[in-house]
Amino acid sequence: xxxxxxxxxxxxxxxxxxxxxxxxxxxxxxxxxxxxxxxxxxxxxxxxxxxxxxxxxxxxxxxxxxxxxxxxxxxxxxxxxxxxxxxxxxxxxxxxxxxxxxxxxxxxxxxxxxxxxxxxxxxxxxxxxxxxxxxxxxxxxxxxxxxxxxxxxxxxxxxxxxxxxxxxxxxxxxxxxxxxxxxxxxxxxxxxxxxxxxxxxxxxxxxxxxxxxxxxxxxxxxxxxxxxxxxxxxxxxxxxxxxxxxxxxxxxxxxxxxxxxxxxxxxxxxxxxxxxxxxxxxxxxxxxxxxxxxxxxxxxxxxxxxxxxxxxxxxxxxxxxxxxxxxxxxxxxxxxxxxxxxxxxxxxxxxxxxxxxxxxxxxxxxxxxxxxxxxxxxxxxxxxxxxxxxxxxxxxxxxxxxxxxxxxxxxxxxxxxxxxxxxxxxxxxxxxxxxxxxxxxxxxxxxxxxxxxxxxxxxxxxxxxxxxxxxxxxxxxxxxxxxxxxxxxxxxxxxxxxxxxxxxxxxxxxxxxxxxxxxxxxxxxxxxxxxxxxxxxxxxxxxxxxxxxxxxxxxxxxxxxxxxxxxxxxxxxxxxxxxxxxxxxxxxxxxxxxxxxxxxxxxxxxxxxxxxxxxxxxxxxxxxxxx
Length: 627
Description:
Number of strands: 17
Number of domains: 4
Strand content: 5-15%
């Protein structure tokens, strides 16, 4: 054993290091088994009491991929069409819209860039027209050529894609997903893999939110009530005109000033029992009383019908000027009957989220309800002070992505740039809003065009199948080595076990993710590790056939097989590097385990087995055969 002190120390060190990195994984396995044996209430109480410890174990455990623990695979498309509309702004005209629609359809059919399709469609309609009529920037002027504008649009599109990638990555990281995969696909799509997700709907909202935060004034309650009266009467008359063929009574004198103190409840009382006439709006809307900025309430299942009724241009004209209707973020009601309040807010924003410098989730000290605290920069604080000072006693809506999260009544002027989002349903919602605000706004809307969800049960089946294949492969190889090489085969099998421990330790140490293809990489590595031992043992046999002693044969076998083993493993390692560099998702998982397995098999086959042979044969502690 003389001269093997360093090798023994290296083996002990790497085994201890692997055990150190794998220990949290064993803790996590034990914890999962314990939680599965608990009842629902007991489990909730245990997780609350041991939250920090559980999160620490999860963070340090060996990560499992989407296919092994379940999760979401989402393909999103960045809205370049909306980006072009934003860049054109108020310079849009009918020709711009027509060209954009044609270009979008062509890009989808032919699979080409929307920018190229837009430019070609535009120049095809009018070769002498200039794109600079629609687009302006510091680089683009009225005299800029179409080629310069095209380069500008391509740059903006590329930057929008990169910005969307960064924003989505920030949101996913803040959400706490372990080892997500976020990659581009073509010029418009982003592929996101999120393992371990148990709330897909929450993730969808998180990924799609554009983070457009606005502070808007709300409609005057008196004007809104009058508008509501006219809209209800519009649908009342519209239906009655078709159903009632009776002669219309003489019109009453309307010369007197109209009564603006209309109460919707009065109209409801008057129309009670008129089922033969009906009113499609009142079938889906519960009108609010007078003196409110709430237009009414709509049940969850009737929102589509309500939207269709309110989309009528004549109905839109009846709303107060510069007012639009938006839904509240959270429905009201219990027992399965949920209603969304419909709020009347100003179309134009008084202040946007660009002035927000910090946001954090908190709780109301009085009601203990979740809220979001926000701080503004100096410019935002100045504007916010002016807005609140000029609208004391009125409501200001806080709108995020066209959904009203709160509409507090201004009690007094607010200086210092502090504001809050209240009325939130849960702490998760406040955390998600903070995540979206801190991660930044998407440069263009994104839409989910493909989604696949792998359930936890399917992930468990894949995990069991993968580990079963690993054990079966290991058992067959181990049995073959013992039958064919006898004592030498037993040493090789021991090296295989050490090899697997090293591989898992490397993955855990570098916080890599174990996937189903990764397990396939480990199975392949088992064969490669045995291949190294086979080369050594066959060389030893050749040396023994020449009449050399066992010690001399082992020395010769290791020396002559070393070059072939190193050459084969190095070339395979380079293939793993290439797969990792140019592959995506599962291919990268396979490449990681392959490279880790090559390093581990080289060490175990060359160093570990040699230590055993030196201890057994050269140290004269026994004898070992090679078949």
